Amino acid sequence: MTEIESTNQLVHSLLHAEDKLVIVDFYSPGCGGCKALHPKICQQAEMNPSVMFLRVNYEEHKAMCRSLHIHVLPFFRFYRGAQGRVCAFSCTNATVRRRSTH
Predict the structure, then answer these.
(1) Which residue range is the domain that position 37 belongs to?
(2) Which residues touch 7 (CB under 8 Å, ≥6 apart)?
(3) Kind and range of the H or E element at 87?
(4) How many domains does the chain have?
(5) Which of 38, 49, 58, 93 is disulfide-compatible with 28, CB 3.0–4.6 A?
(6) How is 44-62 classified by DSSP, letter by letter?
(7) Contact, 2 vs 52, CB < 8 A?
(8) β-strands 84-90, 75-80: how paired?
(9) What is the pLDDT of residues 54-97, one digit of tens each?
(10) CA distance 54 to 87
(11) Which residues are catalytic?
């Protein structure tokens, strides 16, 4: 999992991912939900080496997050090559349960 340090790094990572699925995890170190989900995300990253996992610290990159309309944490965006953004959602326990049953 790669920690994103700048807007340029995020754009560069997305452009060079080609057709690879990219999951961007927007989090805050003080967010309880973010902390609870982190081990599960790390596990998914290990189990899915063909997927690129990126993390953006909301506290360190508020301007970037606001420009991407990230206002609720934890928040995930999925991207794939030329398709661009495939989906985006806030990840509460209810969201996890709802998505895991589909």
Answers:
(1) 2-100
(2) 61, 64
(3) strand 84-90
(4) 1
(5) 58
(6) HHHH-TTSEEEEEETTT-H
(7) yes
(8) antiparallel
(9) 999 999 999 999 999 999 999 999 999 767 878 787 876 555 55
(10) 15
(11) 31, 34
Task: Tell me the C-alpha to C-alpha distance, in Å, between residue 65 and each of 15, 32, 46.
Answer: 18, 19, 26
Each residue's pLDDT tens digit, 89-102: 787 655 555 655 55
Residue 9, token pair as written in the block: 């790094």
Q: Residue 67 is encoded by which pair of tokens?
A: 């420009």
Does the pTM of the predicted model rise above 0.90? no
CATH number, position 89:
3.40.30.10
Amino acid at residue number 77: R
Task: Report the C-alpha gap between 80 and 53 in whole angstroms.
Answer: 12
Q: Which tokens belong to 59?
A: 């506290």
